[in-house]
Amino acid sequence: MESSHTTLPWSQMLRAAPRQFRSLAQDTKADVVIVGAGVAGMTTALMLARHQVDVVVLDDGPVGGGETERTTAHLASALDDRFVKLEKNHGVGGSHLAWQSHSTAIDVIEGIVEEEGIDCSFARLDGWLFCSVGDSTQLLQDELEAARRAGFVDVEMFDRIPELMWDTGAVLRFPRQGQLHPLRYLQGLTAAFTALGGRIHTSSHVAGIEGGAHPGVLTTSGKLVQARAVVVATNTPINDRFVIHTKQQAYRSYVVALRLDDVVVPALLWDTSDPYHYVRVAEGIGPGGSDLLIVGGEDHKTGHADDADARWARLHHWASERFPAGNVVHRWSGQIMEPVDGLAFIGKNPGGPDNVFIATGDSGHGLTHGTIAGMILSDLVRGIDHPWAALYEPSRKPSHALGEFARENLESVSHYAQYVLPADVDDIDDIGRGDGAVVREGLALYAASCSEHGLVRKCSAVCPHLGGIVSYNSAERSWDCPVHGSRFDLGGVVVNGPANANLKQIDQLQPELVIVDELKPA
User: Fold this and answer.
1) C-alpha span between 237 and 500 (Å, rounded)
2) 4-71+183-246+342-407 and 420-519 share one CATH topology?
């Protein structure tokens, strides 16, 4: 079984790395600068370029090297939070716009695939929601009625999923959902954007973002991009210090790709568990061109658990009981931003200048939310109103989800107690090879790891975003902050926002990262 930190799933299945471009080597100007080259950033870039807007895209990694690399690529207008919750939080009108926007997003993706001739295995297929063991089918009846009130009138209830080997029991069928190969699709977006004169610079970490009278971004290498507007599409905003991060929570979700021992009819499937399981068939990308069963779930808040092997094993077991599934071919995890009211935050950055925009809160629907972001932001940046903008407005208050809002934030605040609680281990010598732990030295807390060869790396355990104490993630070999989901590699280099700076060595407060390396005796 391959480990998550050595396998990036879609590039591994493609047997090709995500695409790299030259880093930004000199100051430049554009109409719009976009930070983040995932689906949200590249869709926004292409839609602006189609309106003759001069766009520069910056990313500190390759195109699609972030969460787009890790999506399971479900394209659904039946959202994970379900229509019952959407109606409660946003009313029937809001629930209708949510369904309409995600349904339209699938149409737009299909249109781009056809117009640009993208070979990404796009396909329309049914989505099926079924009950977990012990759940009442009344959940499905309530969801059916809420979906129809939202405008999804052709949802139907069946006794079971036809042509499936195991009896699911009662299910809801959501027609005209979709799937694709995400990196191949992103490669097509990239090619279409650059063909229109768009510019992309990878390996270009953005250190500062400025709006107002002098908008633009500054990279860590000191290069400046001046623009009329800035779009931050980095999964979670790196320019927002506090407001957005109190309204969403970072989760890790786990995935296994299993060899199929028999034919499974392509479909999207998900259940009513919490966390729920989500399943689809990826055709022709396994060993020898075989199909793979992609199974996800076992979610937990980022930094709140370190038991990935057990979660992958449970997914494998769950799937093996229901599908003709064989060995694990790939396994990985990804980061999902869960807004408290179930919908993304797309629009002007709250409390900031009018010319800085954000897209975040994918809620497990990164491809459709990212496409919706492209549609909304390409209008807002050009000064055009959009009919979905109010629904996704980042400054909205979660008035109908205040209980969940309070619980999420109280739990986040509780992790500051790590400053006074005992560390993971008493001494660095207690850390085994290939492991990591938080170590206390006096009042200081260090994030220390030991490689298989005995190399010890040590840096501050304090997240530079809002001062949370990081936790070790043995599957990803990373340091994860349990407060707002920032993540860092073993050297302390930032991997996921909202932090936009590296972990520091405690006793030296210079802005550059200092790593203490020493060789531990065998």
Assistant:
1) 9
2) no
Q: What are the extents of the domains in the chain?
A: 4-71+183-246+342-407, 420-519
Quickly tell me which residue has 């009662």 as its tokens. 170
340: DSSP letter: T
> What is the C-alpha separation between 62 and 436, in angstroms, rounded?
27
Task: Give the closest residue to 151 by CA, choosing from 76, 100, 86.
Answer: 100
Return d(Cα 78, Cα 24) in angstroms, integer. Answer: 40
Closest CA to 301 of 364, 363, 252: 252
Q: Which residues of 388-515 form beta strands (DSSP E)?
A: 435-441, 444-450, 455-460, 471-473, 478-480, 487-489, 494-496
420-519: what CATH class?
A: mainly beta
CATH code linked to domain 4-71+183-246+342-407:
3.50.50.60
Mean pLDDT for the stretch of residues 301-310: 92
Asked if 365 and 82 count as a contact pair (C-beta separation under 8 A), the reply is no
Kindly report the average pLDDT of the chain as a whole number.
Answer: 87
Q: How far is CA 108 from CA 43, 101, 372, in A?
A: 10, 10, 9
What is the DSSP secondary structure assignment for residue 304, as one 8-state letter?
Answer: S
Residue 32: alpha-carbon gap to chain centroid: 23
- Which pair of structure tokens corresponds to residue 256? 């296994």
Token pair for 316: 């494998």
Crossing angle (nearest 10°) for helices 182-195 and 82-116: 50
> What are the angstrom distances between the C-alpha of 78 and each of 88, 91, 93, 172, 334?
16, 16, 16, 10, 21
pTM score, whole prediction: 0.89
Running DSSP on this structure, what letter comes out for residue 470?
P
First-to-last CA distance in the chain?
A: 27
What pLDDT digit, counting tens, does each position of 109-135 carry? 999 999 999 999 999 999 999 998 888
| Tokens standing for residue 218 | 């500054």
Give the model's pLDDT for residue 81.
86
Helical axes 366-380 vs 82-116, angle rounded to 10°: 70
- Whether the pLDDT of residue 422 is over 80: the answer is no
